[in-house]
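Re: pyridoxal-5'-phosphate structure - here you go.
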Amino acid sequence: MSANSFPPKKPVLTGWSSQAVHGGHRQDPMYAHLVPIYASSTFVFDNAEQGMRRFSGQEEGYIYGRWGNPTFTEAEEKIAGLETFGLDMEVKGILHASGMAAISTLLLSTLRPGDKVLSHFSLYGGTDGFLTQLLPQLGIDAVITDLRDLDNAEDCMKKDPAIKMLYLETPANPTIQCVDLESLTALARHYNLITACDNTFATPYLQQPFKYGTDYVVHSTTKFLNGHGTAIGGILLGKDMEKMQTVQTKTHRLLGGNANPFDAFLLIQGMKTLELRMDRHCRNAMDVANFLNSHSAVAHVNYTGLPNHPDYEVAAKQMRHPGAMLSFELKGGLQGGIDFMNKLQMCVRTVSLGTCDTLLSHPASMTHYSVPKAEREKYGITEGLIRMNVGIENVEDIVNDLEQALAGI
Ligand SMILES: Cc1ncc(COP(=O)(O)O)c(C=O)c1O
């Protein structure tokens, strides 16, 4: 037998992008360079005995597309490798149809009637709806409070033994507020709570919640992980391998929020440039924040990279860079916001985030138009607030577009 017929040795990858490019990849049996899009709803058995061994778990292998698929596996192992890069631990990932599907599997597999989940008041709207509208129908309640106040967080955990989970999202959508992962996870451990963190805004390149002992991490892969706005997706990752193989796998299979192979393929290709994209996103965001900060039409800039941001220190402690998201308040109020949005030429008017192009939204006239003014202002969504995903274009072009759109506002 020639030396070439042995499976090649797995290389030791010392760099973050090397892991992002090669992590999770296996040699395809047909020698395709990239993982193929395994567009097959089911997988065949050589014989009945093999089917029996696969169903009983004695033999690894694919069975049915809702349960797993080789294209999903590459994405799952790549993200698991990035979330634990440089850490001496292993986690398992389960790819889902969307971020909300991954969050549903997490919450429904870990909470029982009578349990409560503790979370911060700034959360992605879908997650907030799941916690405050859907879970109560199953006898599970949410305690939503200000988790930036650690005494308040501990008070809640101490006072209410029904609280079984601490659910964090940092930086949070839409306010970009950050909570202290290390201190909150330590408190939760002390009070025996399960901990979970939505790492969508940061990505594993900027922040690794598992480093602080978090039990579960979720992502909307729709955003920076995919990076190009080409597919909806999500992932649930957990460090208890046994539970992930049993409890979470079973819930995922029963809920049916499986990914699809084409979207998994797009995600894998997008993730290969994550480090390059995030470095550029963050550098541009810092330059844009400084430009806006000195503009006379802007009342206030909300970016965790600016030392006047209340969460500047927490972000600096737990994130490599402060991220690509910022918001700013126009002095011109609602009409100023509308006029500014209408004048944009290169930057794009839309609501998502995590793509290569710069995206802006005006919550008061768009996402939060139907929320009464007093209600939305309670959450910091003021009339002239503009939310921005700073893209990877050449920053001069982003600044030029903002400058011409701000003229006369
Ligand atoms: C922080 C965060 N988590 C979860 C989600 C839900 O993800 P998806 O839209 O992929 O279901 C979003 C969507 O915007 C989000 O911003």
